[in-house]
Amino acid sequence: MKILALDTSTSKIVVYYRDSEKIITQTYMGKDKHGRNLGVVMNNLKNLNINFEDIDVVGIGIGPGSLTGLRVGISFALGLSIDKKIVAIPSTKLIAANLMNSGKNIVITRKARQGYIYGAIYDEYLNTIVEPFVESIENFSKELEKMENFSVIGDGAEYFGGNLPEIYHYPEPSRLGYLVEKEVELGNFVEKVEPLYIQKSIAEINFEKKNQRKDG
Amino acid sequence: MKILALDTSTSKIVVYYRDSEKIITQTYMGKDKHGRNLGVVMNNLKNLNINFEDIDVVGIGIGPGSLTGLRVGISFALGLSIDKKIVAIPSTKLIAANLMNSGKNIVITRKARQGYIYGAIYDEYLNTIVEPFVESIENFSKELEKMENFSVIGDGAEYFGGNLPEIYHYPEPSRLGYLVEKEVELGNFVEKVEPLYIQKSIAEINFEKKNQRKDG
């Protein structure tokens, strides 16, 4: 089975390729636009004799993150994915994978519009504790005060006293491959891919959960 | 400052490049010989307009590991490093960086000759607890029985009940960059680079330590 996966939800383009003989990863993080750089990175794969038509599964990081960046990556992935299986990975979970097996819950925070962050919370095995949300920095600071035994990563970690090295804040291709291959094993494929566009606050998510429990 | 770093101590070629505008990483893990693949990976960097003559610092993973693989990488790095500064990183520490900040000590084990492993032990902040050694699987299993609160990674982890995903067992380019940049900040440059060739057992290392204490 041949797998190609990419994530363009942050300023770092992340690409993973695997077939029965080799695993190749590439990342590019710079100031230029994603469109141009993604082309160069993909050309590099071609130089390594990767034929995109042979791919069986396309894995895509669906955000939340920069909509412009996400659209570049998702469009490219969709172009490749005709007649192929598709796996969608939340980019917050992908960042959380940088700290899995750390014995702590993992709080992901990404810069959103002025004064706000996107966030999500996972346990050390990447089970979802709070699904992706958008929240003001002020409100989320208060939420974190109630929590214990967690680490904060992502490019919004600076607002919440996160002090881990910068390498934790951005997706890693090997962890993208790990997550995509887990979904392939489970047969978790999707028909359609769209950027994960988050509008709910933590309060709204909690409110819905409560009502779901009542309904059930 | 422009930094190029590589590690070829395992079956995974790991390359990291950074300048003031961008960070690029590449990895290639396959069955072919390192010589050919390293050339292709380096050509990819040239396609991204990286000029090797402009590099200020060359970082090198010095093993322990496959001597053939190490020689390919170290020769290449030395070829680049004329008139440049050199940073040397033990490849066991590089693998340990995959699990830093996990709240546990990190035991690295790499397959060596039949029945033996290379190993090293670090705390979660990558301070050295036991420097690289070679030991029989049997003896090292007994050593581990005396230890608490640790994780085992590296391609020898299977001998010692290590059950973390495979992605922990091989070097990662972003963590190579992190370690090299820390040495650059500290001004820890070296004049000569040779593969780390390990002949000492744990018993010998402990014996020497004891004598050093007596001398001091």
Written overview of the protein:
2 copies of one chain form a homodimer. The first copy, chain A, is of the alpha/beta class. Chain A has 2 domains: 3-91 and 171-197, ATPase, nucleotide binding domain (Nucleotidyltransferase, domain 5), CATH 3.30.420.40; 93-167, 2-Layer Sandwich (Nucleotidyltransferase, domain 5). Helices cover 33% and strands 27% of the residues of chain A. The first copy, chain A, contains 6 helices and 9 strands, in the order βββαβαβαβββαβαα. Chain A has helices at residues 34-47, 67-80, 91-96, 137-145, 173-186, 202-215, and strands at 3-7, 12-18, 22-30, 57-61, 85-89, 105-111, 116-122, 128-136, 150-153. In chain A, the strands form 2 sheets. A 5-stranded mixed β-sheet of chain A has the order 3-2-1-4-5, with helices on both faces. Chain A has a 4-stranded mixed β-sheet with strand order 8-7-6-9. The longest helix of chain A has 14 residues, at 34-47. The mean pLDDT of chain A is 92. Chain A binds chain B through residues 12, 21-32, 40, 43-44, 47-48, 99, 101-104, 151, 164-165, 167-168, 170, 172-175, 177-178, and chain B through 12, 21-32, 40, 43-44, 47-48, 99, 101-104, 151, 164-165, 167-168, 170, 172-175, 177-178.
What is the gist of this entry?
Chains A, B: Pfam families: TsaD. Two copies of one chain form a homodimer. With 216 residues, the first copy, chain A, is an alpha/beta fold.
Q: Can you list the strand order of the major beta sheet of chain A?
A: 3-2-1-4-5
Q: What is the averaged pLDDT score of chain A?
A: 92
**H/E order of the elements of chain A?**
EEEHEHEHEEEHEHH
Shape of chain A: globular
Specify the CATH class of the largest domain in chain A. Answer: Alpha Beta
Number of strands of chain A: 9
Low-confidence stretches of chain A: none
Structural class of chain A: alpha/beta
